[in-house]
Amino acid sequence: MSGADTLTSFSIDLPDQDAAMALAGEAETTLHRLEALTGASMVLRGLSLQLRGRPNQLERAAGLVELLRPLWQEGQAITQVDVQTALSALDTGRGDEHQQLGKQVLARSQSGKLLRPRTLKQKAYVEAIERHDLTLALGPAGTGKTFLAAVQAVRALQERRVERLILTRPAVEAGERLGFLPGDLQQKVDPYLRPLYDALHTLLGQERTAALIEKNVIEVAPLAYMRGRTLADAFVILDEAQNTTTAQMRMVLTRLGEGSRMVVTGDPTQIDLPPGQLSGLIEAAQVLDGVEGVAICRLTAADVVRHPLVQRLVNAYASRDDERSASRGPHRR
Fold it and tell me: Where are the alpha helices (H) located in 278-307, listed in sequence order?
């Protein structure tokens, strides 16, 4: 039997019970997933993870466990997305980058969960927001575009780099004509900005969010109400930007004032504009490519951090769209 076929073993010591539970996962599902991906046997005995397999299997298994160390060492739950991201980094020789990813804690949620970018492209997106006055993020649902922008916005506010947050999006479903809806402006626009509220509640809690809105430190308004304003010393998030017209996009981008930063997010596959109307987000990504001070980040299905099924759904619809494009020629996207 060659050395490559010889079964060997070694162990990895874990710091405490929380780390052991985090690495194993509920009913040891994480360990079983790691075994399936590497071919190595993994058995947790107390605070010792015992690995057994052929040398190449052990090398792969140990590498994967080490890349996940920043999570399990802190007792943080390891998701399927975390495992797949680590595996991809290992297979592409980007392990060093992934280790930095695990150390990049952005904030702590109200429930105590550490918030960090989960994929390498999310890491690049967060860094782009830090370095640029204007960042455009394009990608499918579930890739963290809105949530990570909100995290960065709250950090900027808490660190006093900006004086207020401005959250806006086009209310396409109501045709921007909100007057016929019952209630005041806040009640009219709330349903359209729910994802942004959800992110703020995760970071600040409902009471703190409500208090900051009451003081106008956080302003939530439909895109139509941005016209004619200069947004200075603010962190601006324009969400669902795929549904802006080219005129609306140009209008909101030119609102940016001194000391401000803007993040524009959207999913080019979910455009609700009338047929034949060009999305302002699509045009902006083309026109602003290469402009100094502007970053354009493109997230993909590989960056989806929701239920694992969402990633497969995104890929399935993308394949269908590609087939339609090939058979019918270019369409309005």
Answer: 280-287
Give the burial class of 51: count Cβ atoms within 10 A of its Cβ; 0-12 exposed, 13-18 middle, 19 or more buried: buried
Distance, in Å, from the CA atom of 36 to the CA atom of 305, rounded to the nearest integer, reads: 21
Say how far apart CA 209 and CA 153 lie, in whole Å.
13
Question: Looking at the chain, which runs of residues are DSSP E strands?
Answer: 8-13, 41-45, 48-53, 107-108, 114-115, 134-138, 164-169, 218-222, 234-238, 261-266, 294-298
What is the pLDDT confidence band of residue 176, given thresholds at 50, 70 and 90? very low
- What does DSSP assign to residue 224? G
Nearest CA to 172 out of 132, 206, 223, 134 is that of 223
70 to 22, 86, 105: CA distances (angstroms): 11, 11, 10
Q: How many Å apart are CA 212 and CA 200, to the nearest integer? A: 11
Percent of the residues in the chain that have a pLDDT greater than 90, as a whole number:
46
The pLDDT tens digits for 60-100 are 999 999 989 888 888 888 888 888 888 888 888 878 877 77
How far, in Å, CA of 186 to CA of 193, rounded? 10
